[in-house]
Amino acid sequence: MSEEKKVSSNVVWHQATVDRQARETMNGHKSVILWFTGLSGSGKSTLAHAVEEKLHELKCRTYVLDGDNIRHGLCGDLGFSDQDRVENIRRIGEVAKLFLESGVISLTAFISPFRADRDNVRHITSDEDFFEIYCKCSLDICESRDVKGLYKKARAGEIKEFTGINSPYEEPLNPEVTVDTGTETLEESAEKVLNLLIERGIIQR
Amino acid sequence: MSEEKKVSSNVVWHQATVDRQARETMNGHKSVILWFTGLSGSGKSTLAHAVEEKLHELKCRTYVLDGDNIRHGLCGDLGFSDQDRVENIRRIGEVAKLFLESGVISLTAFISPFRADRDNVRHITSDEDFFEIYCKCSLDICESRDVKGLYKKARAGEIKEFTGINSPYEEPLNPEVTVDTGTETLEESAEKVLNLLIERGIIQR
User: Fold this and answer.
1) Any CB–CB contact under 8 A between A15 and chain B?
2) A27: CATH
């Protein structure tokens, strides 16, 4: 029966194998997760976007995950309790892993204050795939910037569990890069990240 | 103070604008969500991978989201209750939207039985961005294939709320494409999808 044959051919079709390596070859660069972590106001998102711009100029496929596209979408159901923060970072890590498989360099810009949560993302990927970038900046400087006015609100008690004020930030122990966003220029910090990617063979100039 | 100046320059940096259009231009094709829906065993994942292979040959950037990479990762905390199914599809829709913004053609292969859930994904994107592809196949054929042995378990009462058996499947009302995976060959179905993408100006041969 011809219909039977067709149905059967549908089922036994060899699973197509467009895999990460095939995508990386097409892109001309490897994929990786660039995980920016640091206090609110430390310049994570600004740096991530600056690095993305440089990568884009080098014809790399990139995507920045940050509060703008995550907090109102995928994680719109989560608040800021410890439990919700853990779930927030878990989901972001899983999404970054999907982008990794898709051949895209993803840049995540979240405070991600807890060491265990960041380590979990490293563990669902690998040391070769996960670059932790510590945006080091003193609380004083971050608070003096206060771009979003959040520190003022936290000091006034209007925001509870605000990282650095009444909720801890756990510094990375062995980040792939530390950028001193309090003293370096944005250009200097971005170049540090770019140079790491070149050293590790992820991209080429 | 030079340090002050540097700090300030970090803050006022113009937000980089690598946007969807810039990515699409680099890729040489538009991004879109190809949402495959249909009964278990209707060939959604097989078809999605076949379409992806054709797109990859045309140098398109693609990624398939299916049970293999979602159910154990991002949605590993969800079960199969109605509530969890809704949340499952919501998250997949949000992730597909992120891929859309990143310039990648994402292909999602999930039963996604509820019309409202699929429509929600359409609404967080747009009619231009969301192509619903109905993998139409009779329950008889799907059940006779029973690749994963799930229908047998559902009939035996070992799986509750199994779509088509004791949980409803709501057919798309106005899908962008209907492929009859019960009678068409995989090649025919995949070509239908490719032709739609060409007609709509998403890709070029």
Assistant:
1) yes
2) 3.40.50.300
